[in-house]
Amino acid sequence: MLSVNQLNIHIKNRKLLQDISFNINAGELFVIIGPNGAGKSTLLKALTEEINYSGEINFQQQSIKQWTTARLAKTRAKFSQHHQQDIPLPVNEVVMMGRYPYFANRPGITDLKVVSESLKLTEMSHFKDRSYNQLSGGEKQRVHLSRIFAQLNNEFQEKLMLLDEPLNNLDIYYQHKVLKAVKVFVKKGNMAAIVMHDLNLAAQFADRILLLKDGKMIKYGHPQEVLTSQTICHVYDFPCKVMSHPLAQTPMIVFGEEKSASIIQNIQP
Ligand SMILES: Nc1ncnc2c1ncn2[C@@H]1O[C@H](COP(=O)(O)OP(=O)(O)OP(=O)(O)O)[C@@H](O)[C@H]1O
Q1: Of 26, 75, 126, 269, which one is least surrounded by beta carbons within 10 A?
Q2: pLDDT tens, residue by residue, 217-263
Q3: Could you identify the atom of ligand 1 that is nearest to the CA of residue 81?
Q4: Which residue stretches, if any, does this entry annotate as coiled coil (predicted)?
Q5: What is the DSSP string of 8-39?
Q6: Residue 36 Cα, ligand 1 centroid: separation in angstroms?
């Protein structure tokens, strides 16, 4: 379990996060949503101690501050929103970076096998010898996701995957492919926290959702509890209607209003 209690972050008298408390249980896919500037990336930075905070973060019943870097490297992995664009290496060597905590000089047979399996997860196997720098935005994204899966492929329990907007640049096929792979990962008794903007994907895949705005927790709970028309319209300051997804039976958010169609017609010459 990951347990966050009364997390606060201030920078130069500005409150970036205020009194944030939540748990992620083993087996849960946890999604963090909220408008631009809500504090979602800042929260993930706190979970990887890239930013100073007050409050408690316990990972597997132990303060995260007491964990050694070596142990964390095999138990927690983070996919950042912004990647280094220029990496002059072939794809399989970028994914092998995820295995650096596992070997000193040369990768072993297990590391090579894990890299190969991780490339399969994001359907990047046929790109393995291609130069990373020549890939498209979505392909680069899939390489880094493979790297994260490679990093956490081991026998440890209750591992934590932190993904900051992993679906950027991915088409609908790969958005679902990646989220399904994360779901398989958590169902093995692990945890994932994903920052995303697509509320409908959050509704379909999240076990629990945290909704942030202006650094504050607005709602935290199951998708049906968090994704209500009243809350979403108010928080995003945009008209919407929440219905039931006809196939998945999860909440389905439709943005806009009937009137807007007639407004668009009226302004057309
Ligand atoms: N180092 C910093 N110093 C000052 N302000 C910061 C710093 N880092 C982030 N902020 C501010 O904190 C707020 C939250 O930023 P954060 O990146 O966490 O938002 P977000 O919810 O991830 O937004 P987005 O959806 O736009 O990616 C923003 O207003 C941002 O400008």
Answers
A1: 269
A2: 999 999 999 999 999 999 999 999 999 999 988 999 999 877 655 55
A3: 27
A4: none
A5: EEEETTEEEEEEEEEEE-TT-EEEEE-STTSS
A6: 8
Atom number of ligand 1 nearest to Cα 215: 14
**How far, in Å, CA of 148 to CA of 190, rounded?**
14
For residue 75, give both structure tokens. 């138990």
Closest C-alpha to 129, from 177, 102, 94 = 94
48-65 confidence digits (pLDDT tens): 999 999 999 999 999 999
Length of the chain, please? Answer: 269
**Ligand 1 geometric centre to CA of 40 (Å):** 8
- How far is Cα 125 from Cα 97, in angstroms, rounded to an integer? 16
ipTM: 0.97
Mutate to test the pocket of ligand 1, among 7, 8, 16, 31 (most ligand atoms within 8 A of CB): 16
Tokens of 113: 């096998």
What are the tokens at 228? Answer: 């209500």
Element at 225 (helix H, strand E): helix 223-226
